[in-house]
Amino acid sequence: MARKTSGTTRREGGGLRVGRVNTTEGVHPYDTLEWELRDVVMTNWRDGTVNFEQRGVEFPTTWSVNATQIVASKYFRGAVGTPERETSLRQLIDRVVDVYTSTGREHGYFATEQDAEVFDHELKYALAHQLFSFNSPVWFNVGTSSRAQVSACFILSVDDTMESILDWYKEEGLIFKGGSGAGVNLSRIRSSRELLSSGGSASGPVSFMRGADASAGTIKSGGATRRAAKMVVLDVDHPDIEEFVETKSREEHKIRALRDAGFDVDLGGDDMFSVQYQNANNSVRVSDAFMRAVETGSEFGLTSRTTGDVVATVDAKELFHRMARAAWECADPGIQYDGTIQDWHTNPETGRISASNPCSEYLSLDDSSCNLASVNLLKFLREDDTFDVEGFTSLVELVITAMDVSITFADFPTERIGETTRAYRQLGIGYANLGALLMATGHAYDSEGGRAVAASITSLMTAAAYRRSAELAGVVGPYEGYGRNEKAHTRVLRKHAAANDDLRTVGALEEPVHEAATREWARCLETGERHGWRNAQASLLAPTGTIGFMMDCDTTGIEPDFSLVKYKKLVGGGSMRIVNQAIPRALRNLGYKEEQIAPIVDHVAEHGHVVDAPGLRREHYEVFDCAMGRRYIQPMGHVRMMAATQPFLSGAISKTVNVPEAATVTDFEEIYYEGWRLGLKALAVYRDNCKVGQPLSTSGAAGETVEAPKPVRRRLPKKRPSETTSFSVGGAEGYITAGSYPDSGLGEVFLKLGKQGSTLAGVMDAFSIAVSIALQYGVPLETYVEKFTNMRFDPAGMTDDPDIRMAQSVVDYIFRRLALDHLPYEERAALGVLSASEREARLHGEDPVQAAVQVESYAQSAAPAEAPAPEKHPSEDFSEGFMADAPLCTTCGTRMRPSGSCYACEGCGATSGCS
């Protein structure tokens, strides 16, 4: 539909005039969509029982089955089976938007009743067409009998008194109960090196973390099964910083000892309750002074909380090394860069920014909250592969208007949070689908062009958001705390504009975006200097877990694409394995003809990567690099993308930099140092398999095979060695009987699963015969391992095998077990299949070959001399991605995928943190 105006404008002395952009007068926005009735039936992955069912729900035909299931099961209100239950997306959107419109009308946001109606229609159009989404609390609460809680992110405060510490426990628990997350800085609490007023020794903040951790583990989040989302921050100059740094790494050592003693410490294990500090993300707040001391190898002073005196000194470089080593061991602590955070703070006269929300994207005053919304960037990529600057800008101003209205009617868990949020009106607009947008337009994620596109879009988003905030200030007044922070707020916005001036474009896609951003910053500053601004903060980049699936986004937040092959749910049940639809579009943008595209897509469908795809030029491989896979984006590629967008965000970025298992402590030090040098506000790094309570990484390499010109079947002798292994995968039990040649490797496999005479048993018998015959004709076992590991279907989940704690299917388990029993270490390492003892040895820097326990009867056939291989991308040294050790969803059992600093489930939309 052609857009008719540039959106809303401010009327001097009155409310906003709202112009139509996507809608037409006299045509309801819902009438622009085709609707259909669908049945939503969601089953439990363990036993097949139905855990949610609602039939006859109404959704647009353009919405995927996945989005339908997530919205119907999570966001529809009312008891299922009663007349009060919502049955249509129209009802859900109406419930929410009607409150926004009526509140805006009541509080003078609109110039006329006609403007209120246009606002209402434009907002409903944007939501129904998946142009953007509010964060989950909006869908949960607005328009219901519940408290109108609209914020997903909270920051609390704790002072050095027992009363304050107990208030912290209570406030945090209330936030968890409501399904949101909270962060806190404990640095005001005196250290264990200091005395109490009574003369006794203080406990220190780390000891009080135990009580909060136990509370979070008990309450969980929203009364559901996933753990509560929380952040604990400690300043680097606190006397207890060394204890804090190693808090979770010590517990990880305890977990390993418990595991080795036979206790159940896996994901959700019965014995994990004895392990402490597992319910929070920990971060160290480092100062510029500390980082400079790291650079120079100087001593750094730790200061008393009660007197401010230096009570001890530490070697800054050694402490930094200990931070990196602890994160290498268990992923905690992350790091927050205080100097950068305070330098971009719009309200320093009110107070410092001490902490963040659990995912580190919301950084603001203590006792405050932020409601989020995310824009679906791919919706603004036109068919001619240009970016719809006008449409994007209009949507940003519409969403910012709506988000500010929500603070007017919102409820808050504590009065202090309510007072701060209403006084500073912090907003968090962001986006999703950046990774999909870059790939579709032929941009590598880790490239100058990709970063220029991302930076330009982010700059335009924040400029338009603050320009609208200034216009709102002219209509309904600036935020209450603006007067005392006017100079600082203006200074920070000028810093944003200056960063935009320094931004250099490299391609045609981002040029008009950057030009528009430059105009918007000029308008923003001019309007803001006249009226002030309505909002202390405007933008950040959240993980967009559940709402990303609601919008049918291929990628979440700032993340790159996860993989080139995905699974699409089908109406009526089941799923289909499909190639990422951005690939053909990317190939066209790179100049490939249709007859060249088809074989490349077929290659990706078969192998899951583009390496050696027919006709694909090696210089284009990087365009298709993903978060995981045969070729994955290097860790510093993620850091550079964060650095490109950070100068254009009020807050920070929810993102974990994932590194392979072979990464070193030195790698962590370099990443943390570069994060500071490049001007990030916060950073977290996760090393594959660093936690016991995670399943194995999924790996699969392309094994080299010798193609025999005339295959000859080599039958096994009548008498041959064999071994039978019993197993359980996701509650399904079975047996593997593997027969070997007396002088060499595996020659037959018999699989027993299901009752004799059942269809499943028959299929497994036929599969066993086919595999056995192929083995006898010389098909290498490693080829089967490559093809069948990571195959996903039910039953899946936990196993009873200590070497393979998680399996994505029975077939995945079978070929991992066969690899462990019949392949030598070097080949299994290339395939990413290691035993528990081998992984343990790698973790401690020992020789894993000495730890390998394997059947020595496997004999390798002589391999021919290899031709010189072309130069490889560094990630090709690792056969598969290192982010697939995400947990299984506790609701539906689907492998979750990274979503910023959290994990999100594509099956049901559950998240492990903010949404």
UniProtKB/TrEMBL annotation:
Function of the molecule = Catalyzes the reduction of ribonucleotides to deoxyribonucleotides. May function to provide a pool of deoxyribonucleotide precursors for DNA repair during oxygen limitation and/or for immediate growth after restoration of oxygen.
Record's keyword terms, sorted:
Cobalamin, Cobalt, Disulfide bond, DNA synthesis, Nucleotide-binding, Oxidoreductase
Q: Which Pfam families would you find in this protein's record?
A: Ribonuc_red_2_N, Ribonuc_red_lgC, TSCPD
Which molecular function GO terms apply here? cobalamin binding; cobalt ion binding; nucleotide binding; ribonucleoside-diphosphate reductase activity, thioredoxin disulfide as acceptor
**PANTHER family in UniProt:** RIBONUCLEOSIDE-DIPHOSPHATE REDUCTASE, VITAMIN B12-DEPENDENT RIBONUCLEOTIDE REDUCTASE
- Identify this protein by name: Vitamin B12-dependent ribonucleotide reductase
Q: Which InterPro entries match?
A: RdRp_reductase_class-2 (IPR050862), RNR_2_N (IPR013678), RNR_lg_C (IPR000788), RNR_NrdJ/NrdZ (IPR013344), TSCPD_dom (IPR024434)
Where are the annotated segments for Disordered?
1-22, 697-726
Instruction: Tell me the protein family, please.
Output: Belongs to the ribonucleoside diphosphate reductase class-2 family.
**Record's SUPFAM superfamilies?**
PFL-like glycyl radical enzymes (SSF51998)
Query: Mind listing the GO biological process terms from this record?
Result: DNA biosynthetic process
Q: Where is the Ribonucleotide reductase large subunit C-terminal domain?
A: 151-686
All residue ranges annotated as the Ribonucleotide reductase class II vitamin B12-dependent N-terminal domain in the record = 41-130
**UniProt cofactor(s):** adenosylcob(III)alamin
Q: Which reaction does it catalyse?
A: a 2'-deoxyribonucleoside 5'-diphosphate + [thioredoxin]-disulfide + H2O = a ribonucleoside 5'-diphosphate + [thioredoxin]-dithiol
The residue stretches assigned to a coiled coil in this entry are: none
The source's superkingdom equals: Bacteria
Answer whether the UniProt record assigns the keyword Membrane to this protein.
no
ATP-binding: is it a keyword of this entry? no
Write the Enzyme Commission number(s) for this entry.
1.17.4.1
TSCPD domain boundaries: 717-820
